């Protein structure tokens, strides 16, 4: 069966797409191998090959039984529909402005950017910030009614936001933006402190260019 095959992730851990897949696998406590060769995220599992990070996360949550973790993708149709709503919001409304703003802030701040940045257009950054503020206003309202986006449990809805939110928080302006809404600030503090995400950040900091095997089920979210 496909579920018995080794999970392999290809791509640089600094990539937001690769980071999204890594934290999903670690949250699910699944063994996998990271091969940082390649520029775009790819997951192979037996004869299955996937190349979209959000689809990979959906696959991981539906392919493997929930024997050791809470369900990240909803326990029923209603919960899953709510999670999907927020996954779409992340992909369609949060991703582009947060990515553009993070790159701009890191570039003008002199810190290493997560990807090549070629335009220092302040006007474009202002527009991205305007778009992101509108998104965060919606999030803040939702987070005033529940601990996480899709309810009171951490799910893919929250997990999918981590990579871009992290890079946004790497600059003073980005941190101030996240902190400007109390519910968003509380939510980001909670999701960014999860052990699985902290391990992804540690791997990113090492900027490894060699394969790494992860055995969280055996060693408590560890890599060897």
From TrEMBL:
<comment type="similarity">
    <text>Belongs to the GST superfamily. Phi family.</text>
</comment>
<dbReference type="Pfam" id="PF00043">
    <property type="entry name" value="GST_C"/>
</dbReference>
<protein>
    <recommendedName>
        <fullName>glutathione transferase</fullName>
        <ecNumber>2.5.1.18</ecNumber>
    </recommendedName>
</protein>
<dbReference type="GO" id="GO:0005737">
    <property type="term" value="C:cytoplasm"/>
</dbReference>
<dbReference type="InterPro" id="IPR004046">
    <property type="entry name" value="GST_C"/>
</dbReference>
<dbReference type="InterPro" id="IPR036282">
    <property type="entry name" value="Glutathione-S-Trfase_C_sf"/>
</dbReference>
<dbReference type="GO" id="GO:0004364">
    <property type="term" value="F:glutathione transferase activity"/>
</dbReference>
<dbReference type="GO" id="GO:0043295">
    <property type="term" value="F:glutathione binding"/>
</dbReference>
<keyword id="KW-0808">Transferase</keyword>
<dbReference type="InterPro" id="IPR036249">
    <property type="entry name" value="Thioredoxin-like_sf"/>
</dbReference>
<dbReference type="GO" id="GO:0006749">
    <property type="term" value="P:glutathione metabolic process"/>
</dbReference>
<feature type="domain" description="GST C-terminal">
    <location>
        <begin position="76"/>
        <end position="214"/>
    </location>
</feature>
<dbReference type="InterPro" id="IPR010987">
    <property type="entry name" value="Glutathione-S-Trfase_C-like"/>
</dbReference>
<dbReference type="GO" id="GO:0009636">
    <property type="term" value="P:response to toxic substance"/>
</dbReference>
């Amino acid at each position: 069966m496909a579920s018995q095959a080794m999970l392999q992730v290809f791509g640089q851990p600094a990539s937001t797409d690769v980071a999204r897949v890594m934290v999903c696998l670690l949250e699910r406590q699944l063994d996998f191998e990271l091969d940082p060769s390649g520029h775009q995220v790819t997951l192979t599992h037996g004869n299955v090959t996937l190349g979209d990070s959000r689809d990979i996360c959906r696959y991981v949550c539906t392919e493997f039984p929930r024997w050791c973790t809470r369900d990240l993708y909803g326990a029923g149709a209603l919960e899953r529909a709510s999670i999907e709503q927020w996954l779409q919001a992340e992909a369609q409304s949060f991703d582009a402005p947060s990515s553009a703003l993070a790159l701009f802030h890191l570039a003008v701040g002199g810190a290493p950017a997560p990807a090549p940045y070629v335009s220092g257009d302040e006007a474009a950054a202002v527009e991205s910030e305007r778009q992101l503020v509108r998104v965060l206003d919606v999030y803040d309202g939702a987070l005033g009614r529940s601990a996480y986006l899709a309810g009171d449990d951490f799910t893919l809805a929250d997990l999918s936001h981590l990579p871009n939110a992290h890079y946004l928080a790497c600059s003073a302006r980005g941190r101030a933006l996240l902190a400007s809404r109390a519910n968003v600030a509380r939510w980001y503090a909670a999701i960014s402190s999860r052990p699985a995400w902290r391990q992804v950040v540690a791997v990113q900091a090492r900027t490894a260019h060699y394969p790494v095997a992860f055995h969280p089920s055996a060693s408590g979210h560890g890599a060897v």
